[in-house]
Amino acid sequence: MITLTRKLKNENDAPSGSSTIEPGKRVSIRDRLLVKEVQEMEQTLPGTCRVRFEDPHLLHDFYLTITPDEGFWAGGRFRFHIYVTEEYNMAPPSVKCLTKLWHPNISEHGDICLSLLRQNSIDGMGWAPTRKLKDIIWGLNSLFTPHSSASWKSLM
């Protein structure tokens, strides 16, 4: 599945002066980090989540589908687009909800209010270079768990 691993291996194994990557093109730090993180993310994916890469060579651009099996949103399918910028891991990825829904943490434009997606957050739980893609997946999934939905239901 992850073809960038082979690309990195070939780059390291190639004799000096030749490379499998186009001349002038270097593999970014982001892409090197993502090879390992995507593998880890896929191994620890919650049962209610599915990840889809439109292009397996572009590990920084993918879609997440969350299908909750309990709680208020049970049976729904919620799609997210995740784009990891070149500034990763110093800056969080960009996440947008593609599904129209009413959720206290998701705006009508798909913007997500989740502290770990913020560079600076009031609660101190914002993005840090030690966070990984799996943390984002689990954070998004938690928006649809019964525990998080029970708190706002009591306000209605």
| Poorly predicted parts | 16-21, 148-156
Distance between the termini: 45 Å
Tell me the number of strands. Answer: 4
Spatial strand arrangement across the major sheet? 1-2-3-4
Number of discrete helical segments: 4
Give the biggest sheet: 4 strands, antiparallel
Taken in chain order, the helices and strands follow as HHEEEEHH
Describe the structure in brief.
28% of the residues lie in helices and 13% in strands.
Description:
The chain is an alpha+beta fold and 156 residues long. It contains 4 helices and 4 strands, in the order ααββββαα. The protein has a 4-stranded antiparallel beta sheet, covered by helices on one side. A hairpin with an 8-residue loop joins β1 and β2. The chain is globular and about 45 Å long. The chain starts with a helix and ends with a helix. The C terminus is likely disordered.
Topology:
Elements: H1 4-13, H2 29-43, E1 49-52, E2 61-66, E3 78-83, E4 94-97, H3 133-142, H4 146-153
Antiparallel strand pairs: 1-2, 2-3, 3-4
List the main descriptive attributes of the protein structure presented here.
single chain, 156 residues, alpha+beta, 4-stranded antiparallel beta sheet, 4 helices, 13% strand, disordered C terminus
